[in-house]
Amino acid sequence: MGDTKWLNDDEMALWQAFLTAGALLDRRIEEQLKAESGLSHVQYEVLVRLSAAADGELRMSELAADVLTTKSGLTYQITQMEKAGLVRRRSCADDVRGVYAVLTDKGRARLEGAAPGHLRVVRANLIDVLSDSQVRVMKEGLEEVVRVLGGA
After folding, report:
1. What is the pLDDT of residues 38-79, one digit of tens each?
2. Global pTM?
3. Alpha helix (H) ranges present in 1-152?
4. Which one of 29, 68, 95, 131 is at 20 to 30 Å from 59 when CA atoms are compared?
5. Cα separation of 41 and 48, whole Å?
6. 92, 95, 102: which is closest to 53 by C-alpha?
7. Spatial distance between the Cα atoms of 127 and 122, rounded to a whole number of angstroms
8. Structure confidence at residue 152 (pLDDT)
């Protein structure tokens, strides 16, 4: 334990605030999306990623990495979304193991309907409670964390 670099009071407060803020914000987003659009937060993120992708489609393995979920977790979500008509799957022509998730018109419409409420919650509970300089510092700090963890 002699080599352990313990957190000082400010570092511990940062860590605890990060955990609490993340959990509370995620809960608010989940509640708002479910209530207003019938989507989970993961499903919303799937729609966002697909809408931003070329031709509205991504390989399932890439999509799982983008939304930070397991392949099996994504498969479950895609199955639910496929039943609702929000996405469809298509096979990869040059790789028999490859499967793409494809955004449908209904999925695009659901995303467009859900986006304003989602933005309202993010803005009210994160962006607008911070000053411009706090936003900039947090953005830079969290981007560095993502870079170090290999998610950039």
Report:
1. 999 999 999 999 999 999 999 999 999 999 888 899 999 999
2. 0.89
3. 9-37, 41-52, 60-66, 71-83, 105-125, 132-149
4. 29
5. 11
6. 102
7. 7
8. 54
